TrEMBL record:
Keyword terms: Lyase
Lyase found in the keyword field: yes
GO molecular function terms listed in the Swiss-Prot or TrEMBL record: glutathione specific gamma-glutamylcyclotransferase activity
The protein, known as: glutathione-specific gamma-glutamylcyclotransferase
Alphabetized PANTHER family for the sequence: CATION TRANSPORT PROTEIN CHAC-RELATED, GLUTATHIONE-SPECIFIC GAMMA-GLUTAMYLCYCLOTRANSFERASE 2
GO biological process: glutathione catabolic process
Pfam families recorded: ChaC
The enzyme's E.C. designation: 4.3.2.7
CDD domains: GGCT_like (cd06661)
A GO CC term assigned to this protein in UniProt: cytoplasm
Length: 173
């Protein structure tokens, strides 16, 4: 069983991992397009979390995780509890490439018809939201900073996350 991580799964998979590979997903991009009302914000003051948003010609570089053999059922149950808390994500299987190899991965993508979907927000607006929001798992900015730092450690460039990190640091003082 392979799982594709593009956000917090990169730095906190939460399941036993047998192998990791940098992977590329075509036709989707990493985007702060989901209002977070549980983990990084509240119903009254939503934060933003990353989701895979479909876009023609887009690519998303992330990490393919191979789940430890024998831990697949437990991993799937735990991922569903974590990722499907509000049904804004859709569980799907997508093909990613790792060099010359193609892997089928479990992935969580945004449901563009869900009321938490907010694709297309300007980066400046995203920065203000992320700088202020706090949810059950802590400040929204920590989620951004952790994701951006781990992507950089992996050699994965993401211009939007790099810009947002710098801007949120300015706003947060």
């Amino acid at each position: 069983m392979w799982v594709f991580g593009y956000g917090s799964l990169i730095w906190h998979p939460g399941f036993p991992v047998a192998e990791t590979r940098v992977a590329r997903l075509h036709g989707w991009h990493r985007s702060f397009c989901m209002r977070s009302i549980h983990h990084r914000g509240t119903v009254a003051d939503p934060g933003l979390v990353l989701a895979l948003d479909r876009a023609e010609g887009a690519v998303c570089d992330g990490v393919a995780f191979r789940v430890d053999p024998g831990a697949e059922a437990q991993t799937l149950a735990e991922l569903r509890e974590r990722e499907l808390v509000s049904s804004a994500y859709l569980e799907t299987h997508l093909n990613v490439t790792t060099g010359a190899e193609t892997l089928e991965c479990l992935a969580y993508v945004i449901d563009p018809d869900h009321d938490q979907y907010c694709g297309g927000l300007p980066l400046e607006e995203q920065a203000w939201i992320i700088a202020a929001a706090v949810g059950g798992r802590g400040p929204n900015r920590d989620y951004l900073f952790n994701t951006a730092a781990h992507l950089a450690d992996l050699g994965i460039a993401d211009a939007d996350l790099e810009w947002l990190s710098a801007r949120v640091r300015e706003l947060a003082g």
